Amino acid sequence: MNIRMITAAGLLLALAGCSTTTTTTKTAVIPLLAKNPVQDRWEGKSAGRFFAAYGPPLSDRDESGSRVYTWRGGYKNLTIKTKDGKTTGKRSLSCKADIVTNQSYEIRSVRILGDQPGVSGPSYCAELLAPSEKVEKAEKADSAD
Known about the structure:
Blueprint: H1 2-18, H2 26-29, H3 37-42, H4 47-54, E1 59-63, E2 66-81, E3 87-101, E4 107-114, H5 124-129, H6 133-144
Antiparallel strand pairs: 1-2, 2-3, 3-4
């Protein structure tokens, strides 16, 4: 029994020694703090505006004095083609998120729960819910006509 305990303790110490400790500089920390463009776009805005633009939530619940709405939408089917134009398959896209609001129905945070690679980038949710300024201007111009 003592040999097992000593072996286990030695193994734990060896594993603890495997983790390295380094001093991090500001440039090393920044990539760890991933930007959330959806959060940046919607924080402080009305949840009503979000749901009017993207559809109603699936469910809602109270959580620590906030209201959390679980939303899913942005359903889109894509045909995947090769560079020479041959169809190789289809892909379905959608986005799922928790929208956290305060008592004034103002969005406090957006937590992405389900995401996929987008049409032109790594996040379909970001493409859908936080489009670039160029896309937003084009959409506004289309709706004004």
